[in-house]
Design brief:
heterodimer, A: alpha/beta, Rossmann fold, Alpha-Beta Plaits, six-stranded mixed beta sheet, four-stranded antiparallel beta sheet, 35% helix, B: 258 residues, mainly alpha
């Protein structure tokens, strides 16, 4: 069964002085995520990732379209007891301690009073906060708040977990812990939908990814499927002091390192390149297909110009 | 009461207590004890009048200030700080959140008012040395003050459901001031001819009638409060607060939490 079915969901905000000019934040999104899947939603800041999550959480209302979560309409209140949500850069009631906060959220989520305390302690231990469980959250660092956020998202043992930029702002150790947690959730059979702009995390964790930019879904599939779209290159390594002219004319990008040459060229030119090596009596060391990364796919989909524009925009707003 | 509303109300109360809102009681205690001692020394035969007037007015003002300044942030602060996201992504309906917040704030004010009321009665005992039958009307005046708080809380919550905290504070305080003059406004409407009279009457009946809920001067003089007024004021305050809360819910139900 599909865990999430997003059916032509759209969101526009009215902007301008009279609030009459619609500014699309999400354009007709159609997407299905299966149960037990770890799905990564990729895109630069302002691409529409958080808007999508907010729509699914009922925090903002769609301009058009709908979504079904775990077989129920997304505005069905019963859905909420089966989903967990970690917002981007979470902020919690800072007058509470993590133990009090989780207990409060447990009450709101309908976790039975009997066993609630034990569940809270279990979650605190799972995110490594047992020692600071009694300290007020206003004294917590960003990384510690993120851990609290993860604990509250899985406190009530939801079937489906939404994580908005869960690795954002974390140190390498924190990122590793979040990765491990997502892997654990996968092993427990949970569906995980997480947004990120850190491609290596998506590449390492996701069964499938979707790439969104300017509110529009640009591509969706398994990492292998998506990266194969940018494949078709081979790497040839051979002994030589300089790059043969014949290879350069085939469009190879070559670098000389000591007495070896490393050349990358399109797969179609592979035979011609080997012919050049034979003709020049050069000894081949290796020939391997180049596996392109998700980053290359991402850059191809978004376009370097658009990424640069995005970075400039971000830089200007800092 | 729906259990989720109770949990939200308790958390709101706990937040107010931990944010040291009840520290205002120290200022109140200092003001009242100072006034009682001063009045005891300089007033002859009007100690009761002065202490009741001053005490109840202070209870009212302290409470209204707390109601406005907490009330305006009840919803907007949660949106700004995004604490609301992890609440509304749970099986909590938006109306439950608004109503829970309202009960949390009124609970805070009830505790605050109870402590202040004890302070007023102690100050009264200090200057008059014994309670009299007419002092029971002081309790009625305190009850009316609590009814005022209900309305002020509901109005602050209503404005905060769509406006900024600053504007919400201005709107609520303006309504409190105009509502405190509602009796005079109705009198003005009666003697003003034409459109002006209609307009004054419309405003007078639209704003909350805080003047009817203010019997401080009356009870300070030891005058009784009619039972009918207690009934009407109770119904009026409940109806007005319910309407304001319903308005807040209606607006908040449709609001996008950006």
């Amino acid at each position: 069964m599909a865990a999430i079915e997003i059916l032509d969901l759209e969101k526009s905000y009215l902007v301008g002085f009279w609030r009459k000019r619609p500014k699309p934040a999400l354009r007709t999104l159609r997407l299905t995520i299966e149960e037990g899947e770890v799905f990564g939603f990729l895109g630069p800041n302002g691409a529409g990732k958080t808007t999508t999550l907010k729509l699914l959480m009922g925090l903002v209302f769609p301009t058009a379209g709908t979504a079904r979560i775990l077989g129920m309409e997304m505005d069905n209140p019963r859905v909420k007891s089966q989903i967990g949500f970690l917002p981007e850069q979470p902020y919690f009631y800072d007058h509470l301690s993590p133990r009090e906060l989780l207990n409060y959220y447990g009450q709101l989520s309908g976790v039975p009073a009997k066993g609630r305390s034990a569940r809270v302690e279990q979650m605190l231990a799972r995110v490594g906060l047992t020692d600071s469980a009694g300290m007020q959250l206003r004294k917590f660092s960003k990384g510690m708040l993120q851990r609290v956020g993860l604990a509250q998202a899985i406190l009530h043992d939801p079937k489906l977990v939404f994580l908005d930029e869960p690795m954002s702002g974390l140190d390498p150790m924190g990122r590793r812990e979040v990765r491990d947690l997502i892997q654990q959730l996968r092993h427990e059979g949970k569906t995980v939908f997480f947004s990120t702009h850190i491609l290596s995390d998506a590449e390492a964790l996701c069964d499938r990814v979707g790439v969104i930019h300017q509110g529009e879904l640009r591509g969706v599939g398994t990492v292998a499927d998506l990266t194969s779209q940018t494949q078709g290159k081979v790497e040839i390594v051979f002994y030589a002091q300089k790059v043969p002219v014949g290879l350069t004319s085939l469009g190879a990008e070559a670098t000389v390192s000591g007495n070896t040459v490393n050349a990358v060229l399109v797969e179609e030119q592979q035979d011609a390149a080997l012919e050049v090596l034979r003709r020049e009596r050069l000894k081949l060391i290796s020939l391997t297909p180049v596996r392109s990364s998700l980053e290359e796919y991402y850059i191809q989909k978004l376009g370097p110009a658009e990424i640069r524009k995005e970075e400039n925009r971000k830089g200007a707003s800092v | 009461m729906n259990s989720r509303i109770g949990y939200i109300a308790f958390n709101t109360f706990r937040e107010a207590v931990r944010d040291r809102v009840l520290y205002n009681l120290i200022a109140f205690a200092l003001l009242l004890s100072g006034a009682a001692i001063l009045v005891g020394e300089i007033s002859i035969d009007i100690e009761r009048l002065v202490v009741v007037n001053l005490g109840l007015t202070a209870v009212s003002l302290f409470g209204v200030v707390i109601a406005i300044f907490i009330g305006i942030g009840l919803v907007s602060k949660e949106i700004d700080k995004r604490t609301l996201y992890t609440v509304l992504s749970r099986p909590v309906r938006r109306w439950e959140f608004v109503v829970g917040k309202f009960f949390g704030l009124t609970g805070t004010l009830l505790v605050n008012t109870f402590v202040m009321a004890v302070g007023v009665l102690l100050a009264l005992l200090y200057v008059t040395h014994r309670f009299e039958n007419m002092d029971v009307w002081v309790l009625v005046a305190l009850y009316f003050i609590v009814l005022q708080f209900l309305i002020v809380c509901a109005l602050a919550l209503f404005f905060s459901s769509f406006s900024t905290p600053l504007l919400s504070a201005v709107f609520t305080f303006a309504l409190f001031v105009i509502g405190s003059l509602a009796g005079d406004l109705r009198g003005l409407a009666n003697i003003t001819p034409g459109v002006g009279g209609w307009l004054a009457a419309a405003v007078a009946y639209l704003v909350p009638n805080f003047s009817a809920l203010n019997v401080i001067s009356q009870v300070a003089h030891g005058d009784a409060v009619p039972g009918r007024l207690i009934l009407y004021n109770s119904l009026y305050a409940l109806l007005y607060a319910t309407m304001a809360i319903a308005g807040a819910v209606l607006i908040f139900q449709r609001r996008n939490l950006k």
